[in-house]
Fold this protein.
Amino acid sequence: MKKIEAIIRRSKYRTVRDALHAKGINFFSYWDVTGIGNEQKGKVYRGISYSTSDIQRRVLSIVVNDDFEQITIDTILEYANTGEIGDGKIFVSDIKDAYRIRTGDKGGETLS
């Protein structure tokens, strides 16, 4: 099993969510976060400078069986991409085990 954490633009969340659902990835958690970007500069709008160092993003936390790892990554890469700085990051880590609290089931079948 793999845990895939993706930090994406909040404006891309619905698109990514719908694309993941279409690929059969129906369960994940998400939350809104504020981060600090080191590549983004302040923006000027109508002569007023706005700081963009504090960046509003959404984090997706998805645990999938190994056979869904690349599908999940490819889907996020395709649908979260705008081609601009600040599109986000994806982190992948191994999950040793999973348990379903209600039944005590263990392993990959707990993800379905």
About this structure: The chain has a mean pLDDT of 89.
